[in-house]
Design goal:
The structure is a single chain. The chain folds into 3 domains: about 260 residues, Alpha-Beta Barrel (TIM Barrel), CATH 3.20.20; about 120 residues, 2,3-Dihydroxybiphenyl 1,2-Dioxygenase, domain 1 (Roll), CATH 3.10.180.10; about 180 residues, 2,3-Dihydroxybiphenyl 1,2-Dioxygenase, domain 1 (Roll), CATH 3.10.180.10. The chain is about 30% helix and about 25% strand. It contains 17 helices and 24 strands. Strands 1-2-3-4-5-6-7-8 form an 8-stranded parallel β-barrel, surrounded by 6 helices. Helix 7 links the parallel strand 6 and strand 7. Helix 1 crosses helix 10, helix 4 runs parallel beside helix 5 and helix 10 packs parallel to helix 13. The protein is elongated, with a radius of gyration of 28 Å. Pathway: Aromatic compound metabolism; 3,4-dihydroxybenzoate biosynthesis. One of its GO terms (molecular function) is 3-dehydroshikimate dehydratase activity. Belongs to the bacterial two-domain DSD family.
Length: about 600
């Protein structure tokens, strides 16, 4: 289907928005009136620029407070409309959005509303323009789509139809099934937006927190299916009011927007994308390593250096099925002036299919500079710029990336680490919703509830995504703090390693003079009050600096290492089916990390 987006969704000037919208691959655009008013370009130049970019101007919006008004206001309204029709002719736009009135002067009179909308449609038709009437969720008298449709049907004019907006419909809890009773040819336009589920005034919810389909909690795909059953043939258009999007990078927000529509069409069965290939595990985590600190920390954790890349300054460290790659070639010239997480290898049953789906969903494909002997690895960039490699390690039918390393004899005593449990990725604030959509659509991972965690200098927002079996877990974090508000402990990255016996792992760290992050005694006093733990277990937790959590499935023990550069390790042990991430303990961890960098 044709795709469109309202200019209000993006940051920047109108010309910047048009350029980004076209570059992302949209077919059309809704011109938001405020963007036109602020532009130095004439309507004719905007029309020509859109044509040069291959964009149709699908809608001009919004026109407000039209229907069911007293006679003296009607005359002024029609005069105003005539002026806007003239502007639309200069723009080359032939569809105007009219919102249901919020004016205190509006009368609760459907017959009068229909009569006046019919009059407006007659005036519009004389200019070759149609009117799409939309029920605002906070409209004074008309605030549901079925009410708006009754008025349009009563007005009975060929130039008057309805505009359906997923946010206005779903935010009020209206049943979208009734949409199927509207003839498709009378649905003049469809606007799509999602939103997180929030208990707040619907106007404020709408103006500040809308997001692209798939990034919130509304069933936008279900609504779209109802619309498509009517025979609607217009564009799928996005109209999102979001404070973060309007501050973000214009070009990447436009790409994220189109990705949301591609995924939405897939959910509605209207496009044929390569099927998602859900990762089955972590092949490796790659760290930029510029000194001896990370090798020393890995050794303390029981990892052994098992190989060196045959052509690059890269080492492979292993313990059980956990593999860490240290790359000393990533330095300030490549954006990693200090130790940091640079890449993740994801196990997949079909790397080519994984890469194909990523490309279809507009993920940036990374160029690979490899020697002839190097294993082929497809990679894409995640929203935070972490490189994601699609791997099939040590499989007889696929070249393994481990073959690029010259083996060397292991020399370290293992410490019970079995595999990488999860990886926490710090997101730039403007990319958090983009990341959630990216991992759900590109990798087929399931997003969990978004959490806000207390940080000594603000809030940390966190959302986990995982495969159904938990073999791949990612925690997406963004710090809601000012850059100058305190030590940037919230901005660190970490790799969580699973231990079969975390008590033994912790004792080893203490014996080697590398104790875990110190945890305040007050935490253990509270732990004793909240949980009826075995006294011996409680003493062990306090003695070794271990943290504890539990859910309906089981319990969770974890510890944190010191931080090197921007990276630290977490060691975890999941007991009896625990599914969480120890989020209740995050404020204690964050405070302890801040204290260490003072």
């Amino acid at each position: 289907m044709r795709t469109s987006i309202a200019t209000v969704c993006l940051s920047g000037t109108l010309e910047e928005k048009l350029t980004a919208i076209a570059a992302a691959g949209f077919d059309g655009v809704e011109i938001f009136e405020n963007d036109l008013l602020a532009s130095p370009l004439s309507p004719e130049r905007i029309r020509d620029r859109a044509a040069e970019l291959g964009l149709a101007i699908d809608l001009f919006q919004p026109f407000r407070d039209v229907e069911a008004v007293p006679e003296d206001l009607l005359a002024r309204t029609l005069r105003r409309a005539e002026k806007k029709f003239a502007v639309m002719e200069r723009l080359g736009a032939d569809l105007m959005l009219v919102c249901s009135s919020v004016s205190p002067a509006a009368l609760d009179d459907d017959a009068l509303a229909a009569e006046q909308l019919r009059l407006l449609a007659e005036r519009a038709a004389a200019h070759g323009i149609r009117i799409a009437y939309e029920a605002l969720a906070w409209g004074r008298h008309v605030n549901t789509y079925d009410h708006a449709w009754r008025i349009v049907r009563q007005a009975d004019h060929p130039a008057l139809g309805i505009c359906l907006d997923s946010f206005h419909i779903l935010s009020r809890g209206s049943d979208p099934k009734g949409i199927e009773e509207i003839p498709g040819e009378k649905i003049f336009f469809l606007q799509l937006a999602d939103a997180p589920l929030m208990a707040m005034d619907v106007l404020q919810w709408s103006r500040h927190y809308r997001c692209f389909p798939g990034q919130g909690g509304l069933d936008v795909a279900g609504l779209l299916e109802h619309v498509l059953r009517t025979g609607y043939e217009g564009p799928l258009s996005l109209e999102v009011f979001n404070d973060v999007f309007r501050q973000g990078d214009t070009a990447r927000t436009a790409v994220d927007a189109l990705r949301s529509l591609i995924a939405l069409e897939e959910a509605a069965g209207r496009t044929d994308l390569p099927a998602p290939v859900v990762p089955t595990g972590f092949a490796f985590a790659e760290l930029a390593s510029t000194g001896p600190e990370l090798p020393a920390l890995l050794t303390e954790l029981g990892f052994a250096r098992t190989g060196r890349h045959h052509s690059k300054p890269v080492e492979l460290w292993e313990q059980g099925d956990a593999r860490i790659v240290l790359n000393s070639g990533l330095d300030a010239t490549t954006g990693h002036p200090e130790p940091a997480l640079a890449a993740i290898g994801l196990e997949t049953s079909d790397p080519a299919a994984s890469a194909g789906r990523a490309r279809a969903l507009l993920a940036p494909v990374l160029p690979r500079h490899r020697a002839v002997a190097d294993a082929p690895l497809d990679a894409v960039a995640a929203p935070d710029s972490t490189e994601l490699f699609f791997c099939r390690t040590e499989h007889p039918d696929h070249p393994s990336w481990t073959g690029d390393f010259t083996p060397r004899a292991a020399s370290a005593a293992p410490a019970g680490i079995t595999h990488i449990d999860h990886v926490a990725l710090t997101q730039p604030r403007h990319h958090f919703d983009e990341a959630s959509l990216f991992y759900r659509t590109v990798l087929g991972l399931r997003p969990h509830e978004s959490l806000e965690l207390a940080d000594p200098y603000g809030l940390l927002r966190s959302r986990a995504v995982s495969g159904a079996d938990g073999s791949v877990r990612l925690a997406l974090n963004v710090a809601q703090i000012r850059p100058d508000s305190g030590p940037s402990g919230s901005l660190r990255q970490h790799i969580a390693l699973h231990s079969r016996d975390i008590v033994a792992t912790a004792r080893r760290l203490w014996e080697l003079g590398a104790p875990p992050l110190p945890i305040p005694g007050n935490y253990y006093d509270d732990l004793e009050a909240r949980h009826e733990l075995d006294p011996g277990l409680h003493r062990t937790l306090r003695e070794l600096g271990l943290l504890y959590d539990q859910d309906d499935g089981g319990s969770f023990l974890h510890l944190y290492t010191a931080t090197v550069g921007r990276v630290f390790f977490e060691v975890v042990q999941r007991i009896d089916g625990y599914q969480g991430y120890g989020a209740a303990n995050a404020p204690v961890r964050l405070a302890a990390q801040h204290a260490r960098v003072r």
